[in-house]
């Protein structure tokens, strides 16, 4: 079984995409120098590899950890002005009302390109779908938290208010962008924010804890939640959940 090298591929990134180990990939390609891979080059895959190219990653993201990418289908066309959502989670739009993933990607990918290249933005796109497939977290939620935290700027700096928060999701002591491995590091940044790190929870754990996305967003930003008032910053950003909800509805506003 073979695989054709794509832009941004490294052995580590290929192994992550296809659900195989780097050691197995290297063993299947004893004559290949992993530091000089060329686009269009063909390499061997070890037994059990999945050569679905840019959309692999443990379980294929088109199939997901339980069979699908959550949130990839359905949704509205979005649009409209900023709404000052407030109060408990029940006062915020139900996920069935969120704009479609395609509409949200079109809207937000344009913003990402102010700071990241077209190729890097496409790597973010693939990473979101891969991680949604393995984590069960809605692709739209992953997308808007990336935009909330970094605007999709892969070179965003880290914050440190007692906790080291690096990368495009400002995860809990996760990884930062590695220009020597752009696709692999982008994928890991999205994994860290969504699936958590050894040092802190990601969206997946917070969603399991709070049972709704809006409280999970507040927990992600603040570390704790006032369930009666999701605009209570609890020491962090007061309008964080409000802005996330507007992004999920496809709303537009000055300075978004």
Structural class: mainly alpha
Unreliable residue stretches: 48-65
Largest sheet: 2 strands, antiparallel
Query: How far is the first residue's CA from the last residue's CA?
Result: 46 Å
**What is the average of the pLDDT values?**
87
Strands in their spatial order, largest beta sheet: 1-2
Written description of the protein model:
By secondary structure, this protein is mainly alpha-helical. The chain is elongated. The chain starts with a strand and ends in an 8-residue tail after the last helix. About 7% of the residues have low confidence.
Quick structural summary:
With about 260 residues, this protein is mainly alpha-helical. It has 9 helices and 4 strands. The strands form 2 sheets. A two-stranded antiparallel sheet has the order 1-2. Strands 3-4 form a two-stranded antiparallel ribbon.
List keywords for this structure.
256 residues, two-stranded antiparallel ribbon, two-stranded antiparallel sheet, 4% strand
SSE inventory with pairings:
Blueprint: E1 2-4, H1 11-18, H2 22-27, E2 42-44, H3 101-112, H4 118-135, H5 139-150, E3 159-160, E4 164-165, H6 182-195, H7 203-210, H8 213-222, H9 240-248
Antiparallel strand pairs: 1-2, 3-4
Helix pairs in contact: 1-6, 3-5, 4-6, 5-9, 7-8, 8-9
